[in-house]
Amino acid sequence: MNGKRAALLVGALLCPGVLLLAVIILFVAAVAGGAADHEDDTGADAAGWATPAQVDGINPVMLDAYGKAAQSVTRLRPQCKGMRWSIVAGIGKIESNHAAGRHIAADGAITPHILGPRLDGSGVGGNTSAISDTDGGRLDGDPQFDRAVGPMQFLPGTWNGSSWQDGNGDGVKDPHNAFDAALGTAVYLCGTGAVDLSKQDQLDKAILRYNHSQTYVNDVTGWIRTYDQTGASSSDTAVGGRAGAVIEAARAQLGGKYVWGGGDINGPTKGGFDCSGLMLYAFHQGAGITLPRTSQTQRTVGTKVSNRSQLQPGDLIVFNNDGAWGHVGLYVGGGQMIDAPNPSKPIEQVAVTTGYWTQFDWDIRRVL
C-alpha cells in the first residue's frame, strides 16, 4: 500500500586518512519474456546497477518491468537520482509478492486482476476510513468504493493522477500491467522535485509517501537490501580486464584484519590493512597502478565522476565521513563494496547504496 492510499496503514570508528574505493559491476541482463521494445532499453537502470538475469521468487516479466522502470524514470523525472530495479522490486514484493499466482504475459498483462479489499471503512485490510469511488469502477470493478489495483496496488484516483504511465509503449496506461505499474511506482517514488534515492533518508521518505507506515518502510527497505545483494552475487563474474583483477585482489583479502596504517603494494603490513592500504594493494596487484597512500590523496587521482549514476567497475569512492574525506573502499556491484572498515571489523563486503555509508558525501574517482 502507498501514500496514494493514505487511509490504509499496513502495518564507527572509521579508517583514518583512507579513501573508499568503489567498483560497480554492470551485469547487463537479457530477461526472458520481456515487454515490447521501447525507448532507452539498455538493460541497465538509471543508477548504473544492472538488473540480474534472474532472481528467485520474481517472475522474469516482473523483473524486466522493474529494471525498465528504474531505467526509464530518469527521462520522466530528470531530477530523480539513485533509482534502481531493487527499489521498485521492494515495493512489488510487499504489495503483491510480485503478482504471485497470476499469469503474467510477455507484454506485462496480469490475469486475473489483483484487487485489494473494498475501502468502505469496515476495517478490512487495516482500512478504517471509507474511500468513495473515484473512477466509476473502471479500474477496480466497484462503482461505490475504491479498491487498490494491480501488482503495485494503486488507488484508482492516484493512478489517474500522478502515476498514470505507459511502461511498455503500447499506448495504454494500465495499472494491471506489470510494465505500466512498475513505471508508475518509480515515478511516484521520485515525486516532482530533486531527490537522491541512493541516500537512505531520502529513500525512506519516498517509501513513506507510498504508505505512511514505518513498519512498511522497514519491510520494503529490508527487501531492497536483499535484492541489492542478489544483484551483487549475480554479477560478481561479469567484470573482466583490469577492473575485474582489482576486484579479485581486494576480494582475496576478505576476512583479513584491519590495522591502522597497514598495507602496501605487496600486501599487509603490521598484520593487516587499513582502507587506503587495501586500495593501494588491490590497484597495484590487479592493474599495476600505484596509488598515493591516503584517502585524501587518493581523492586526487584519475578523473572525477560527477554523478553516482555514472559509477563503473574500478571507480574509487571517497567518503567525507569525518570532514576530511577519511575513508575509501571498492564497489563490487549490486550496491556493495569491499573495504577495511575499522579495528572492530575484518575486511568485508557491505552495502554502500542502502546502508551506513549513504549518510555521507561521496567523491568518485575514475582511475582505470
Structural account:
The chain has 368 residues and is α+β, with helices and mostly antiparallel strands. Strand 2 (103-104) and strand 3 form a beta hairpin. It has helices spanning 60-76, 85-96, 156-159, 178-190, 200-210, 214-235, 241-251, 275-287, 295-298; strands at residues 80-81, 103-104, 110-111, 195-196, 303-305, 316-319, 327-333, 336-339, 348-351, 362-366. The chain contains nine helices and ten strands. Helix content is 29%, strand content 10%. Helix 1 packs across helix 2 (85-96) and helix 2 crosses helix 6 (214-235). The protein has a six-stranded antiparallel beta sheet. The protein has a two-stranded parallel ribbon with strand order 1-4. The chain has a two-stranded antiparallel sheet with strand order 2-3. Mean pLDDT is 83; it is low at 3-14 and 16-48.
Give a quick summary of the entry:
The protein has 368 residues and is an alpha+beta fold. Helices cover 29% and strands 10% of the residues.
Structural class: alpha+beta
- Oligomeric state of the chains? single chain
Question: Rg, please?
Answer: 22 Å
Strand content bin = 5-15%
Range of helix content: 25-40%
β-strand number:
10
Identify the overall geometry. elongated
Integer average pLDDT: 83
Low-confidence stretches: 3-14, 16-48
List the helices and strands and how they pair.
Elements: H1 60-76, E1 80-81, H2 85-96, E2 103-104, E3 110-111, H3 156-159, H4 178-190, E4 195-196, H5 200-210, H6 214-235, H7 241-251, H8 275-287, H9 295-298, E5 303-305, E6 316-319, E7 327-333, E8 336-339, E9 348-351, E10 362-366
Parallel strand pairs: 1-4
Antiparallel strand pairs: 2-3, 5-10, 6-7, 6-10, 7-8, 8-9
Helix pairs in contact: 1-2, 1-4, 2-4, 2-6, 7-8
